[in-house]
């Protein structure tokens, strides 16, 4: 009887202690779980913030690329429109000037080319009758369509060196042919000299192959560049 009473007393003393330890262990487990959940939550929050930042950066990049693409498309459209306009301008000028003057667009410039065989005698730098007639047509176009523009007059020759013409070099001949055209446009056609520039290239800027007769003929020319 006494042993039973003692056992019951011991149980009564130990039971609360065991419950207390169990309760503390449960609390510790819960704390660990909460800490793990919090760590996972913080990690997910950081990942979410990173993804949001990346999305914002990608959105900005996309907006920038779309804007740049739109600007490129606008420039291409403007360039295409300018090219079409210049092609139409070349075609119109060619129709008005006829076959004696070639018309082309080169580097954004309108270039009027006059065959030296038609405008100068062989080895000569003075405009002949046909040359003056051609320059009359050219001058009318320059004054009516390009008033206030600058005209760069350039002389060119083939590669054959002058022999009996009296010129020291093709460069000298090309310069004097350009000067002859410039002087006619200024003194006879009333184009203001402030808009005239002159250059000579001799044989150093050929348009065709100097090894053929036809190529040499194309290289002997005076060109008038209309500067934009």
Counting structural domains, the number is 2
Q: Describe the sheet with the most strands.
A: 5 strands, mixed
The rough form would be described as rod-shaped
Q: Cα-atom Rg, whole angstroms?
A: 46 Å
CATH topology of the largest domain: 60s Ribosomal Protein L30, Chain: A
Distance between the termini: 126 Å
Count every beta strand, where a strand is a DSSP E run of 2 or more residues.
5
Helix amount: 55-70%
- Alpha-beta classification: alpha+beta
Task: Give the second-level CATH assignment, the architecture of the largest domain.
Answer: 2-Layer Sandwich
CATH class of the largest domain: Alpha Beta
Order of helices and strands: HEEHHEHEHE
- Please list the strands of the largest sheet in the order they lie side by side: 1-2-5-3-4
Strand content is 5-15%
Poorly predicted regions are none
Number of helices: 5
Give the rounded overall mean pLDDT. Answer: 90
Name the CATH homologous superfamily of the largest domain: OmpA-like domain
Strand-helix topology:
Blueprint: H1 2-97, E1 101-106, E2 109-115, H2 116-119, H3 129-145, E3 150-156, H4 170-187, E4 196-200, H5 213-219, E5 221-227
Parallel strand pairs: 3-4
Antiparallel strand pairs: 1-2, 2-5, 3-5
């Amino acid at each position: 009887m006494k042993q039973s009473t003692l056992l019951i007393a011991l149980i009564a003393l130990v039971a609360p202690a065991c419950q207390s330890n169990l309760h503390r262990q449960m609390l510790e487990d819960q704390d660990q779980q909460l800490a793990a959940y919090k760590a996972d939550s913080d990690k997910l929050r950081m990942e979410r913030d990173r993804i949001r930042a990346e999305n914002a950066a990608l959105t900005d990049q996309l907006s920038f690329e779309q804007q740049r693409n739109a600007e490129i498309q606008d420039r291409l459209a403007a360039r295409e429109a300018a090219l079409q306009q210049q092609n139409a301008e070349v075609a119109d000028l060619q129709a008005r000037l006829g076959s004696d003057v070639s018309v082309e667009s080169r580097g954004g410039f309108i270039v009027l080319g006059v065959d030296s065989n038609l405008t100068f005698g062989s080895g000569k730098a003075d405009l002949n009758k046909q040359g003056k007639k051609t320059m009359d047509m050219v001058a009318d176009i320059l004054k009516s369509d390009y008033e206030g523009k600058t005209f760069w007059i350039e002389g060119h020759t083939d590669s054959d060196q002058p022999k009996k013409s009296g010129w020291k070099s093709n460069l000298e001949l090309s310069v004097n042919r350009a000067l002859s055209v410039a002087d006619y446009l200024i003194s006879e056609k009333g184009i203001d000299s402030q808009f005239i520039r002159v250059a000579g290239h001799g044989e150093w800027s050929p348009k065709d192959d100097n090894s053929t007769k036809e190529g040499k003929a194309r290289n002997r020319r005076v060109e008038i560049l209309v500067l934009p």
